[in-house]
Design brief:
With 79 residues, this protein is mostly helical. The protein has one domain (10-78). It has helices at 2-18, 23-56, 64-78. The two termini are 37 Å apart.
Length: 79
């Protein structure tokens, strides 16, 4: 419960600061926040699928080297 109260307070502070910015900056920040929320929701969904697969023992083994290569390649694109 305390976390929720702190989160709401933090969001209130952020929104009050954003409200003093130009409209274009407010729009950009709004889009970035929504994109972040969508990315987190997608990650949660993928994690939940993984949990279901583990519980049902239907998952498949990962090639950790392949996972590392993909992560490095993705990170290089973002940099």
């Amino acid at each position: 419960m305390c976390y929720t109260i702190l989160m709401v307070k933090t969001l209130e502070i952020a929104i009050s600061k954003v409200s003093s910015l130009p409209e274009a900056a407010q729009e950009q920040l709004g889009r970035e926040i929504l994109e972040r929320i969508e990315a987190l929701a997608q990650l949660r969904a993928e994690i939940q699928i993984g949990i279901f697969e583990l519980e049902a023992e239907t998952g498949e083994a990962l090639d950790i080297e392949s996972v590392n290569r993909e992560a490095r390649a993705e990170h290089a694109r973002e940099a």
